[in-house]
Sequence to fold (209 residues):
Amino acid sequence: MTETDGILGVLLAGGLARRMGGGDKPLKTLAGRTILDHVIDRLAPQCAGLVINANGDPDRFARWRLPVAADSVDGFAGPLAGILAGLDWAAVHQPEITHVVSVAADTPFIPRDLVKRFVTEITASGAELAVAASGGWSHPVIGLWPVTIREVLRRALVVENDRKIDRFTSRYQLATVTWSVGPIDPFFNANEPADLAEAEALIARGLVA
Fold:
């Protein structure tokens, strides 16, 4: 497994965005472009392809010309359902894909070495899954997942009604890969309007590489 070979990027855009006043957080504007544009620019070079996980009318994402995979689990089942949607899409449409890297679509400063470091750590440690961390916090929504776990994940969601990412990842040997938070936290996410203003300020100050 190389940095891009066999890895599909899944942009998790299915959140309810209550603190942002509703709508799609990834479609909010940041420095003259959507947050989704920023995420795609950073993740696309790291993957063999991208798919957007979102529910509702997929046409709102039409201008990006990316596949849109909706949750297959009824109700708002959270990010694990989005990860499962990405795993299922890969298995059906790109069977050569071995892993999916999941990224929250409201994280505009996602590391440009995300996939490289995940692959390096999994290869070195023999772990089955990898998740990101920074500033003493784990970010399990941002992770690397083998396609082979999809039926176990489906059972966890549908049969066991287990929607907590940390509880699901505890079933596997897990690698936690940590990034520095200086000068910015690469996993900064825009949850509310004040976060967008902060992100604008970070960009204006030239702190975003």
User: Anything to note?
Assistant: The longest strand covers residues 137-146. The beta strands are 7-12, 29-30, 33-34, 49-53, 68-69, 99-104, 129-134, 137-146, 174-179. The helical segments are 35-43, 79-93, 114-125, 150-158, 165-169, 193-204. The two ends are 27 Å apart (CA to CA).
